[in-house]
Write a structure and sequence with these properties.
Helix content: 25-40%
Structural class: alpha/beta
Shape: globular
Number of helices: 12
Distance between the termini: 23 Å
Largest sheet: 9 strands, mixed
Radius of gyration: 21 Å
Number of strands: 19
């Protein structure tokens, strides 16, 4: 069915202009004025922005952690994402040492294929490097279109890999065209500080932050960046939370290293004091890296504006307060790490960034969509509004005011990390490949309609649509 979006203001990472948009067979077929095409459906976007769909490069759906499983799976998580203006996600596929990487990928396919309502891809965790892993990686890139690999530098005795694993992963990624991602915290130092705190009887949620100081994030970020320079490879640092990490990324980029940084909305609007809320409420804000002292927010905003950081992920990793976060009563180390962020990433960033003059509207699109598509092998199919691109479209009311609350969000979790926060700007309708997922703020999508995205190798154009699984 041909659809015509009229009277809207189209905004991309480079442009802003008034035009109509013709959609046919899931693609953007034409952009212009007075497109007399006989479309079966005309959508009036008067007074609204027409954005390319958001891409969330950092989600954890249906993920086991700390003896429990995230409360949002690929159905509830992608529905919430769509309500929030996100039309593609890239989720993290966890692996087990000693097992073929393909086993983990198959598990994630089974979790997602009949549930996702928007398009999705996978990053793959690398926890060890041996001959079996080195043989599998190029096959996975070619067959699965997974072109990004994550190495944890933290969570000792759980996810943490050593520096040799990171370095050899960087070398392999350089050879085969993949992007290496790191969770950059010094896990050995954190492990020492955590054990020290527990021995001293310090068990409250605030000690999650105090045992993961910003210096250990900065140190690990700098170490990963230096190893990237030695390897001549490419690195993406996830969930940057503090000035120390921004400084290390900036230094590496000034040396000419291929290093990029992602931050998240929680670090832009929340701070460490939230972990001190009484009655164990601080547990709601336990994730890693932890929230930082408030002054770091300005550093992060300036880094986004100046290009020192390039993208915004959600690090969606939701656990209910009742029954899940409460596992850590009396021991902060047992609080499941993560928060419900996916639904509010887009609107919060627009409200706090564009509306408050911290970034331009074109920077907004670049940071929440376009740059992510380019880094992760999805551009130009995703991440922009152009003839031939997928019709992933957000019709966005820039002046709608609302209050974020667990009572009205669509995530399968019993609290909001941003409860009571006022935002300006809201997605009204959201289309994925030309079909409505959200229509006039109502869900009209279908579980299982999301397509798995095989992605292009790092630095190259994406594969044609027919290659998508």
């Amino acid at each position: 069915m041909k659809k015509l979006i009229t009277n809207g203001t189209i905004v991309t990472a480079a442009d802003r202009y008034e035009a109509d948009l013709l959609i046919e067979d899931g693609k953007i077929a034409a952009i212009g004025k007075n497109l007399g095409t006989g479309a079966e459906e005309v959508i009036d976007a008067r007074g609204a922005y027409v954005f390319p769909g958001g891409i969330d490069p950092h989600t954890h759906l249906d993920m086991p952690f700390g003896g429990t499983v995230t409360s949002d799976d690929f159905e509830t998580g992608t529905i919430a994402a769509a309500y929030g203006g996100t039309t593609s996600i890239i989720d993290f596929c966890l692996t087990n040492k000693g097992e073929p990487l393909k086993n983990a990928i198959q598990t994630w396919h089974e979790k997602s294929k009949s549930k996702a309502v928007i398009d999705y891809g996978f990053h793959l965790m690398i926890s060890e490097v041996n001959e079996q892993v080195l043989e599998e990686i190029p096959l996975i890139i070619e067959e699965e279109g997974i072109t990004s690999f994550k190495v944890f530098m933290a969570y000792k005795n759980v996810f943490q890999a050593d520096d040799e694993t990171l370095f050899r992963t960087l070398l392999t990624a350089k050879e085969h065209g993949a992007l290496v991602m790191v969770h950059a915290e010094n896990g050995d130092v954190i492990d020492f500080l955590v054990n020290k705190a527990l021995k001293e009887g310090n068990t409250a949620p605030i000690y999650h932050a105090l045992t993961r100081p910003p210096e250990v994030e900065g140190e690990a970020t700098g170490r990963a960046a230096q190893l990237t320079g030695v390897a001549g490879s490419q690195l993406y640092v996830v969930h940057v939370s503090c000035a120390e990490a921004v400084e290390k990324i900036d230094q590496a980029r000034k040396k000419g290293y291929q290093v990029w940084g992602e931050t998240c909305p929680q670090y832009l609007v929340l701070d460490q004091s939230y972990l001190e809320k009484p009655n164990f409420e601080g547990a709601k804000y336990v994730w890693s890296p932890p929230l930082r002292e408030k002054w770091n927010q300005e550093v992060l905003w300036n880094a986004l504006k100046n290009g020192q950081l390039q993208t915004l992920g959600s690090d969606q990793c939701s656990f209910n307060f009742k029954g899940q976060k409460e596992l850590g009563v009396g021991d902060f180390t047992k609080i499941p790490n993560g928060g419900p962020i996916i639904e509010d990433r887009f609107s919060l960033f627009f409200s706090e960034g564009v509306k408050k003059g911290r970034i331009s509207i074109n920077q907004f699109v670049d940071i929440v969509s376009t740059r992510i598509a380019k880094l992760f092998g999805l551009f130009p199919r995703k991440g922009t509004i152009a003839v031939g691109s997928d019709a992933d479209i957000v019709i966005f009311d820039p002046n709608k005011e609302r209050v974020i609350s667990a009572e009205t969000h669509h995530m399968n979790v019993d609290y909001s990390a941003f409860e009571g926060m006022k935002v300006t700007g809201e997605p009204i309708s959201v289309l994925s490949r030309g079909e409505f997922v959200i229509r006039e703020k109502e869900f009209v999508g279908k579980p299982g309609s999301g397509q798995y995205l095989k992605r292009a190798r790092f630095g190259s154009q994406e594969k044609p649509a027919e290659k998508v699984r």
